[in-house]
Amino acid sequence: DPNSLELIDKTSAYSNTQVLGDYHLDIAGRHSLNIQGGIQTEWDQYHHFLTIFSGLSDNDNPVVHPEDRLNTTRAEQLHTFGGYASFGKVHYDYDNRLLLSAGFLSDFRSIRTVKALLPSVSAGWVLSKEEWFPRNTGVTLLKLRASWGRMSGVSRAPSGVPPTDYELEPGKMAEIVGMTNFGTDAVLLEGRLQLAAEYFSKYNNNTRFLSQLPGEFGNAPRVSSGKMRSWGWEISGNYTDKAGEMHYHLGGHLSDSQNLVTAYAGQRTVSNGRLRVLEGFPVNSLWGFQTDGYLQSEAEVAEAPYFNSRITVGDVKYVDRDGNKKLDFGWGSLEEPGDLFYLGTDQPRYTFGINGGASWKGFDFSFFFRA
Question: How far is residue 141's CA from residue 187's CA, in Å, rounded to a whole number?
Answer without folding.
Answer: 5
